[in-house]
């Protein structure tokens, strides 16, 4: 009789019509535990949805400046408040005195605050009829700010923030006409909070490829940032290594803002500390750069087991194979 009790109750979430109160949300969990599981990820609904989200935003920002006009919805304002709260907590949690330079322990104090408050923060962003999704979506917010054990941050954490935004789109909190604000306002603000975390707590790069990686911490702003430059009348890829160009245009272009941050954080010749970016500056056109970065992102981030093993899957980002 006991064996019957142990059987998990069947979940009928597939039958519940999309976006109704009947939707079954679930706390996301890890599904990719061994290298052979990677095929399951690449064939999943999650992979298709994630790449679709990244590419839709890539198209949306094409040829547009950060300073252009766009709609800012109430949800976007609430997301900026959420990120403002995370920022304020950094100010309230100064780095601890400790012998080792990297991985300041005060980060764990900061993180525990987020750990406790994440669900409430997400609830404040969601429309009332979608409050049931808060526990599921909050997981991705917590995953997006680095690892509190290792005190590191990398492209897997950045991807979790994109998933967080993708989930908000799936439940209808963010809409198609929020595209520009998602990248230019929300993601940009997220970047500035992450840079502050990295600087304040001297976070280690997670799974960094050293000088052979694109950047120690980020990848998406280079993709979307290169798209902003497509068909630019004067600025070409060769110009981004010119510090004068960077200082003059970084408020308008995400890509240049990333380069500016690298220049502030690293010493020595650019070609040595950022070899991949140096190589990219030789590519003739921004659309070639953009396409190349998307290919590189798939190969170096989304198809690498050390990154994807930490990914969590639920009802919104599903490990189920894509429907043929």
From TrEMBL:
GO terms for molecular function: ATP binding; metal ion binding; peptidyl-prolyl cis-trans isomerase activity; protein tyrosine phosphatase activator activity. GO terms for cellular component: cytoplasm; nucleus; protein phosphatase type 2A complex. It catalyses: [protein]-peptidylproline (omega=180) = [protein]-peptidylproline (omega=0). One of its GO terms (biological process) is mitotic spindle organization. It is found in: Cytoplasm; Nucleus. It comes from the Eukaryota. Keywords: Acetylation, ATP-binding, Cytoplasm, Isomerase, Magnesium, Metal-binding, Nucleotide-binding, Nucleus, Rotamase. Belongs to the PTPA-type PPIase family. PPIases accelerate the folding of proteins. It catalyzes the cis-trans isomerization of proline imidic peptide bonds in oligopeptides. Acts as a regulatory subunit for serine/threonine-protein phosphatase 2A (PP2A). Modulates PP2A activity or substrate specificity, probably by inducing a conformational change in the catalytic subunit, a proposed direct target of the PPIase. Can reactivate inactive phosphatase PP2A-phosphatase methylesterase complexes (PP2A(i)) in presence of ATP and Mg(2+). This is Serine/threonine-protein phosphatase 2A activator. It comes from Dicentrarchus labrax (European seabass).
């Amino acid at each position: 009789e006991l064996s019957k009790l142990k059987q998990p109750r069947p979940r009928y979430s597939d039958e519940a019509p999309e976006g109704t109160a009947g939707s079954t949300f679930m706390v996301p969990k890890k599904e990719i535990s061994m290298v052979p599981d990677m095929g399951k990820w690449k064939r999943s609904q999650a992979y298709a949805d994630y790449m679709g989200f990244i590419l839709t935003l890539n198209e949306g920002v094409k040829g547009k400046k950060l300073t252009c006009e766009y709609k800012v919805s109430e949800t976007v304002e609430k997301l900026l408040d959420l990120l403002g709260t995370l920022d304020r907590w950094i100010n309230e949690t100064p780095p601890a005195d400790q012998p080792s330079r990297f991985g300041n322990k005060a980060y764990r104090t900061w993180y525990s605050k987020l750990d406790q408050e994440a669900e409430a923060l997400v609830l404040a962003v969601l429309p009332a009829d979608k409050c049931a999704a808060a526990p599921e979506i909050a997981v991705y917010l917590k995953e997006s700010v680095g690892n509190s054990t290792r005190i590191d941050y990398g492209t897997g954490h950045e991807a979790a923030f994109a998933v967080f935004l993708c989930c908000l789109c799936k439940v209808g909190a963010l809409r198609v006409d929020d595209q520009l604000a998602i990248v230019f306002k929300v993601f940009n603000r997220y970047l500035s909070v992450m840079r502050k975390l990295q600087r304040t707590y001297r976070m280690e790069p997670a799974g960094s490829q050293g000088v052979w990686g694109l950047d120690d911490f980020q990848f998406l702003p280079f993709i979307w940032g290169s798209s902003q430059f497509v068909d630019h009348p004067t600025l070409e890829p060769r110009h981004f290594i010119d510090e004068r160009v960077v200082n003059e245009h970084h408020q308008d272009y995400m890509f240049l803002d990333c380069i500016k941050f690298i220049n502030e954080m690293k010493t020595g010749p650019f070609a040595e500390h950022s070899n991949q970016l140096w190589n990219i500056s030789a590519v003739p056109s921004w659309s070639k750069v953009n396409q190349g970065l998307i290919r590189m992102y798939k190969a170096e981030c989304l198809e690498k087991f050390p990154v994807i093993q930490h990914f969590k899957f639920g009802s919104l980002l599903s490990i189920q194979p894509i429907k043929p």
